[in-house]
Amino acid sequence: MELTLPPKVTDRAFERLAEIGASQQGQALRVAVDGGGCSGFQYDIKLDAPADDDLVLTKDGETVVVDAVSLPFLANAVIDFSEELIGARFVIENPNATSSCGCGTSFSM
User: Name one Pfam family in it (predicted).
Assistant: First the structure.
């Protein structure tokens, strides 16, 4: 039986949250999974206030939260921040996804 671990957040993602001042605004990075998108599921990533039933991941005062419904879809995933010529964004490396769309915001399991 494979051990299911909560998602991991990279130092780069926490550093970006500090750069934009998320905690100073009382906000956390919320990572959720919703039905939809071109592959069946899609990521919803936004700044939001933490809720009582969220999984809370913190480092250096910055916070990332995942709601209980999304948690099984993000088990063992890595939440990172990517900065490329085409833009900068938070990205998810999800080992549970069997396929994903070209933009990386939609996936199937």
Answer: Fe-S_biosyn
